[in-house]
Write a structure and sequence with these properties.
- It comes from Actinoplanes lutulentus.
- InterPro entries: UstE-like.
- This protein has about 290 residues and is mainly alpha-helical.
- It has a domain at about 80-105 and about 115-285: Four Helix Bundle (Hemerythrin (Met), subunit A) (Up-down Bundle), CATH 1.20.120.
- It has helices spanning about 10-30, 35-55, 65-75, 85-105, 115-125, 130-150, 150-155, 165-190, 210-230, 240-265, 265-275, 280-285.
- Helix 3 runs antiparallel to helix 4 (about 85-105) and helix 6 (about 130-150) packs across helix 10.
- It starts with 9 loop residues before the first helix and ends with a helix.
């Protein structure tokens, strides 16, 4: 008997074509600086994912691109085999695999679209294709690429491994653990029917309203520290983690808070007790 052949899903085809588009850009532009070449390839792949998301009417198609693209880029940039390159690559892969798995765990297929994109579609003041292209896809791609700028000197430099690298390992490793722990605690909380309508106020969520976002932001600061350790001349790539802070502090956090305020009457009091991102001593004492 012949084996059962699964027909490729639209999402699979979209990511495959996106990858091919990226490699086509790389092949078509020899001699361009690798950083610029990577940016062009990244944008080309993003445009393919955007086109696919419009075709299937689901902007969530972009979500795994956020976590997969950095790992691919880090692998492509890994020109050496030193301690720093190995550590950075392992940390990026750990972050990427965990975050992508977390997305896959909650995504229910093309019939399900993230509530944020549904809300943006309903409340938009511009054509949906423009909101999707710029707000959901291009801006995040550019912010993530900015965050990756510090990875370039870390992967290509030959400066000796030092104390700043040790600090970067601690920061980045802690970020991955914080994000993973926060997501696991949230999944367990949401899975309990007794918690329906309640606000998660335990574990890391006792000290931060969005510890998963805090972990994500911290990860990119760790990447910048690796770049700084490899070549202090690349200090200006601090623009990457700063852009990440701005994205979460002024877009993601307010959006999540507004939704919770609309769904949970006591969330306003929760906001007064618990800080949005960074814990502080007063938040802990107020819960004791």
């Amino acid at each position: 008997m012949g084996g059962v052949h699964r027909r490729p899903r639209p999402a699979d085809l979209a990511y495959l074509v996106a990858g091919l588009a990226a490699w086509a850009v790389i092949a078509a532009l020899p001699g361009v600086h690798p950083l610029l070449l990577t940016l062009y390839a990244d944008l080309a792949a993003t445009l393919v994912v955007f086109a696919a998301s419009m075709a299937v009417a689901n902007a969530s198609l972009y979500d795994p691109y956020w976590s997969v693209a950095p790992a691919v880029i880090a692998i492509v940039w890994a020109t050496g085999h030193g301690a720093r390159q190995t550590v950075v690559l392992l940390l990026v892969l750990a972050w990427s695999i965990r975050l992508t798995a977390n997305w896959a765990r909650s995504w229910r297929g093309l019939g399900h679209e993230d509530w944020r994109y549904v809300q943006l579609r309903e409340q938009r003041q511009a054509p949906w294709w423009l909101v999707n292209l710029v707000g959901i896809q291009l801006v995040p791609t550019l912010v993530v690429f900015a965050g990756l700028l510090g990875v370039w000197p870390a992967m290509t430099g030959d400066r000796a491994f030092g104390l700043l690298d040790d600090a970067a390992i601690i920061v980045t490793g802690a970020a991955v653990v914080i994000e993973a722990t926060a997501d696991r605690q949230l999944h367990h909380f949401a899975a309990d029917p007794a918690n329906r309508g309640r606000i998660i106020d335990q574990g890391l969520w006792r000290y931060s309203r969005h510890p998963n976002y805090l972990g994500e932001i911290t990860f990119w600061w760790g990447m910048w520290l690796f770049g700084l350790a490899a070549d202090p001349g690349w200090w200006w790539t601090v623009a990457g983690p700063i852009a990440m802070v701005l994205l979460f502090a002024f877009v993601s956090v307010p959006m999540m808070d507004r939704r919770s305020l609309a769904r949970r009457p006591d969330y306003e009091q929760h906001m007064r007790r618990v800080p949005a991102l960074l814990p502080h001593p007063m938040s802990r004492r107020s819960r004791s």
